[in-house]
Amino acid sequence: MVWLFAIATGLIVANLYYAQTLIGPISRATGLDPGAAGLIVTLTQIGYCLGLLFIVPLGDLLENRRLIVTALLTTAVALLAASMTSSAHLFLFAALCIGLGSVAAQIVVPFAAHLSRPETRGKTVGKVMSGLLMGIMLARPVASLVADAFSWHAIFVLSAATTAALALLLRARLPQRQPAGGMHYFELLGSMWQLLKTTPVLRRRAAYQACMFGAFSLFWTCVSLELTGPYFHISQTGVAIFALVGVAGAIASPIAGHRADQGKSRSTTAIALTLGAAAFAMPLLIHSSRLVDLGVLVLTSVVLDMGVSANLVTGQRAIFALPAEIRSRLNGLYMALFFMGGALGSSLGGWMFAAHGWTGVLWTGLCFPLIALCVFATE
């Protein structure tokens, strides 16, 4: 079941990131202005945030398996619509809907925590989140390779078919889970504000990850533009290979989960945030030949992904240690808050790259983990 959960979350969340390395061809095909190209990623993340706030809490109220399957079928329809349109407005609306439906991944994660034993919950969540992070990281190279071989439309068609098949598989394999409930939908939503006010660990962990995910989204939104630009002049296949190397950062997830189970959350958080800052400092400090600069960027992608994944799992371990009956709402709040950071990072990244180039992107990215470290210093 852990393998199934890990693969499912990876396939679902990948839908949010296929467009990230295809911003150029999608913008040209839909007539989207280059300065507004970041909206392709930003609107998907905004849709995901809305789903986290208004759909994921239903995991504490409705039967979980049915909720997951419905969200996946909605995502499949939105992906198919995105593959067929040549209108910027319609594509952006489809991107918003893809984000909304992809929150199924965040109903699956608390499901896995619910089925696991308390003493190994961090390790289980770490393994499932490894699948999720592999999905995020593999989405970019897979999208680039498919776009190179066929066109950018093909990856959306392929993903629509995969998502629909996954919905049928999960309906057959997942056990039913009917929460105790006891409140209406609007009461459930109202309780989320109260949970945010009365759960300091949630606020703190969300602040750390919002900064880290902002840096992550900013980097991966802009790095493909830099790599395919005049300095590096790399093809989409080269971008795919670059993104594939970044997958190595996912190894930090189960390690961080295991350390959190041992009560080492604080030191793990400090290491993760420091890795985030170091990732952006390296290309700012090291300038040499084109080959060396490319090697530094590869190392930056791995170190940044390690920091983001370690911090994410440590935060979820802390949140899933809280009562099971509020777990979906806590997870929804946590993910929504840090995805807002991601949406801010991707939109800022597109604007900074257009206005100030790659150096401006790096300085902006460095600010995010430094802010997180300042917040962490008050813990």
From TrEMBL:
UniProt KW Transmembrane keyword: yes
InterPro entries assigned: MFS, MFS_dom, MFS_trans_sf
Residues annotated as transmembrane: 37-55, 67-84, 90-113, 125-143, 149-170, 206-227, 239-257, 269-288, 294-313, 333-354, 360-378
Keywords: Membrane, Transmembrane, Transmembrane helix
Lineage top rank: taxon: Bacteria
GO MF annotation terms: transmembrane transporter activity
Keyword Disulfide bond in record: no
Family annotation (Gene3D superfamilies): MFS general substrate transporter like domains
Residues annotated as domain Major facilitator superfamily (MFS) profile: 1-379
Pfam family, one: MFS_1
SUPFAM superfamilies reported in the protein's UniProt record: MFS general substrate transporter (SSF103473)
Protein name (record): MFS transporter
Taxonomic classification: Bacteria, Pseudomonadati, Pseudomonadota, Betaproteobacteria, Burkholderiales
